[in-house]
């Protein structure tokens, strides 16, 4: 009896404390928004917490309950706002910094198993002898079929110097191969580049990270050293899910006139009303030397094609939108994802943070991308036989609770157009069957159909266009703004938001794709 009274007393104390805190919050809310917090609902929250502690079938950790409550509150806002616990916060910092602890392979999902797209040079997997095309069937002896790609990737990651066993099925090998690999810190190269044929260069950005601008500058300089007379450059942003805004600004600035407006943002906070220019303080705020300063002069004038698809999102759309607005490049491929929102990281503790949508972004001509995407100048399917499953990818407009367009909240026209595209493809069973059997396209190879069409465009040869009409272009119905702009003050993780006051006040006028792009781990 005494224990029960004590328990109830503690809960009562918690409720009193909750009400006291709520009164403080109410005062803050009135100061910030002009309206008080709903005390009745806060009392209900305290009551539910107490009921779970006393009546639930088994004991639940207080921290877990509160953490889940915060997570639910934030995730209810939109698909991109989320609470980052210790593990998720660490993973985000690793992604933005372009490094993590793992074995060093780029992978994709195939028939329930993991297909190695490529081992990263000089990593544990590369040194162990894992090859492109290998099929990973077991991790630490446990069959992975039925797991998601993310689940399997997490199993291959771990603490530095820890070991993991990877079972491989390899073509032309009679028995499975088992590799015991020691995990190490892996540094991801987000930029690839090569001369695809004399006079024509290909630069691929797989994700916008802190080192991306530096890496791109080095790769492009090397390309011009190899071939000083480049006649056409393909910037490949297909399946690039985005990343930090400074990376997008820097990549755009490399090809545009000095001091060009790259993107502007608008939100509730004064600090979210910004205009970003192609200047070092915006794309390399911590660098002592401008990483773009020594790029070849010809880069500002070389003919360009930017390749995009439904997996091109967020920061990718900033770049495509800017180059399209200035008519600096021909955008080719399929309609992009349509993530036009800014996410800012707000640190809560040393190990946790909230990623919160704080603004929308706009292209230089104040076009809105949110829930609409960038429509290519030349619509070209992924293969000669059609766009296959790529056209069935989930886009921003398909996500529940997605942020609407501030000038056209319903955006019915865009939704109906994308739905019509899906209906058309779903009716074509032959094309779907072909798409499911087809091997994933390896970007930058001779089998890359869209890249071949880009080269044809440079040469003035016919380009095979898609038979499916795109949805309405960004800005056709209204205007809006946004992307992942981690503001790392107080916590400086994704250097995505230069602390610079806007010189020009912008005129109001980014669930991942269903088909996953290769993942490194």
Automatic annotation (TrEMBL):
<feature type="region of interest" description="Disordered">
    <location>
        <begin position="468"/>
        <end position="521"/>
    </location>
</feature>
<keyword id="KW-0720">Serine protease</keyword>
<dbReference type="Pfam" id="PF13180">
    <property type="entry name" value="PDZ_2"/>
</dbReference>
<dbReference type="InterPro" id="IPR005151">
    <property type="entry name" value="Tail-specific_protease"/>
</dbReference>
<dbReference type="InterPro" id="IPR004447">
    <property type="entry name" value="Peptidase_S41A"/>
</dbReference>
<keyword id="KW-0378">Hydrolase</keyword>
<feature type="compositionally biased region" description="Basic and acidic residues">
    <location>
        <begin position="498"/>
        <end position="513"/>
    </location>
</feature>
<dbReference type="InterPro" id="IPR055210">
    <property type="entry name" value="CtpA/B_N"/>
</dbReference>
<dbReference type="Pfam" id="PF03572">
    <property type="entry name" value="Peptidase_S41"/>
</dbReference>
<feature type="compositionally biased region" description="Basic and acidic residues">
    <location>
        <begin position="478"/>
        <end position="490"/>
    </location>
</feature>
<feature type="domain" description="PDZ">
    <location>
        <begin position="89"/>
        <end position="157"/>
    </location>
</feature>
<dbReference type="InterPro" id="IPR029045">
    <property type="entry name" value="ClpP/crotonase-like_dom_sf"/>
</dbReference>
<dbReference type="InterPro" id="IPR001478">
    <property type="entry name" value="PDZ"/>
</dbReference>
<dbReference type="Pfam" id="PF22694">
    <property type="entry name" value="CtpB_N-like"/>
</dbReference>
<dbReference type="InterPro" id="IPR036034">
    <property type="entry name" value="PDZ_sf"/>
</dbReference>
<comment type="similarity">
    <text>Belongs to the peptidase S41A family.</text>
</comment>
<protein>
    <submittedName>
        <fullName>S41 family peptidase</fullName>
    </submittedName>
</protein>
<keyword id="KW-0645">Protease</keyword>
């Amino acid at each position: 009896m005494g224990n029960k009274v004590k328990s109830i007393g503690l809960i009562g104390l918690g409720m009193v404390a909750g009400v006291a805190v709520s009164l403080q919050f109410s005062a803050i809310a009135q100061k910030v928004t002009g309206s008080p917090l709903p005390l009745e609902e806060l009392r209900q929250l305290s009551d539910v917490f107490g009921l779970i502690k006393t009546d639930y079938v088994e004991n639940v950790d207080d921290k877990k309950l509160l953490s889940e409550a915060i997570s639910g509150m934030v995730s209810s806002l939109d698909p991109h706002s989320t609470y980052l616990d210790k593990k998720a916060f660490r993973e985000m910092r690793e992604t933005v910094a372009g490094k993590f602890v793992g074995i060093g392979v780029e992978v994709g999902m195939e028939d329930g198993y993991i297909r190695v797209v490529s081992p990263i040079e000089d990593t544990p997997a590369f040194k162990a002898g894992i090859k492109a095309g290998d099929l990973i069937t077991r991790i630490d002896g446990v069959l992975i079929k039925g797991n998601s790609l993310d689940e399997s990737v997490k199993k291959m990651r771990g603490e530095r110097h820890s070991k993991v066993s990877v079972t491989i099925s390899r073509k032309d090998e009679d028995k499975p191969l088992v590799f015991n690999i020691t995990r190490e810190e892996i540094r991801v190269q987000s930029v690839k580049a090569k001369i695809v044929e004399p006079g024509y260069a290909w630069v691929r950005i797989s994700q916008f990270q802190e080192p991306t601008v530096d890496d791109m500058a080095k790769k492009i300089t090397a390309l011009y050293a190899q071939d000083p007379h480049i006649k056409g450059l393909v910037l490949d942003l297909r399946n690039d899910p985005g990343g930090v805004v400074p990376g997008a600004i820097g990549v755009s600035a490399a090809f545009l006139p000095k001091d060009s407006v790259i993107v502007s943002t608008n939100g509730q906070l004064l600090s979210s009303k910004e205009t970003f220019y192609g200047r070092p303080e915006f794309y390399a705020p911590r660098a002592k030397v401008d990483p773009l300063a020594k790029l070849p002069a010809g880069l500002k004038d070389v003919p360009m094609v930017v390749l995009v698809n439904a997996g091109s999102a967020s920061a990718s759309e900033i770049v495509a939108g800017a180059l399209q607005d200035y008519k600096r490049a021909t955008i080719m491929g399929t309609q992009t994802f349509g993530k036009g929102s800014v996410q800012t990281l707000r640190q809560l503790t040393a190990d946790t943070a909230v990623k919160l949508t704080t603004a929308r972004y706009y292209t230089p001509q104040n076009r809105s991308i949110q829930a609409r995407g960038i429509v290519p100048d030349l619509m070209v399917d992924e293969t000669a036989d059609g766009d296959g499953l790529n056209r069935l990818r989930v886009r921003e407009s398909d996500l529940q609770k997605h942020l609407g367009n501030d000038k056209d909240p319903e955006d019915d026209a865009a939704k109906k157009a994308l739905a019509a595209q899906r209906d058309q493809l779903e009716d074509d069973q032959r094309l779907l069957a072909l798409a499911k059997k087809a091997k994933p396209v390896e970007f930058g190879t001779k089998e890359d159909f869209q890249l071949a069409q880009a080269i044809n465009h440079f040469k003035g040869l016919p380009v095979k266009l898609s038979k499916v009409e795109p949805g309405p272009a960004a800005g056709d119905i209204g205007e809006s703004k946004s992307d992942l702009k981690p503001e790392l003050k107080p916590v400086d993780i994704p250097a995505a938001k230069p602390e610079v006051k806007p010189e020009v006040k912008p005129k109001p006028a980014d669930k991942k794709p269903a088909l996953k792009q290769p993942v490194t781990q």
